[in-house]
Amino acid sequence: MGRKRSIDRNALLDAAEAVVRRDGAARVTLNAVAAEAGVSKSTVLYNCKNKEALLLALIERRIAAEENTANEIRAALDAAPDSGIRTRIALARREMSEDDRAVILSLSATIAQNNELAAPIRAHYARVLDEILQTSTTSDDAFIAFLAIEGLHCLERFEILQLDPDRRRRTLDDITRLARRGLTRSESEGGARCAV
């Protein structure tokens, strides 16, 4: 039986992620992705012109997935004060799977060597930070809380620091308290109290 002539883009990206997990992003080849997906190399080329385009599509899909989850959290917050940082804290409380960690770690090494692959990540973080600052009662506290969350993510993603679940929860509770400081300050100025 021959290889399929076409493939859904998400199925192709699933195959690419499987190759990244197995071989690392630096070793991804269009042939390896084609073999994993059960399609011809020309089918992969039709969907993604080259390896860089394939990796870029993977990065953009991961960003879109995170933004979709953030949108769901934000909708549940119903435009509450500090919704930007509260959304980031809620995202940080979610456990990252080992598969996700492996893909992100491998992609990070490749992104560090290719400025074009970093462009959508920079744009994503610019949007996130803008939302945090625009929705914050006190932007300084929210900004510091954001940096703390991202620092924790970095240490975890690169497997430099792995907190036990209780310590991780307490750390995120501390970051939440930091973000709440702005709410507490606004209360004394007549603002409404809102839980993070």
From TrEMBL:
One Gene Ontology term of the molecular function aspect: transcription cis-regulatory region binding
Superkingdom, natural source: Bacteria
Gene3D superfamilies: Tetracycline Repressor, domain 2
UniProt keyword list: DNA-binding
Domain HTH tetR-type: from-to ranges: 6-66
Record keyword Ribonucleoprotein present: no
Keyword Transferase: no
The entry's DNA-binding region: 29-48
Designated name of the protein: TetR/AcrR family transcriptional regulator
Originating species: Pikeienuella piscinae
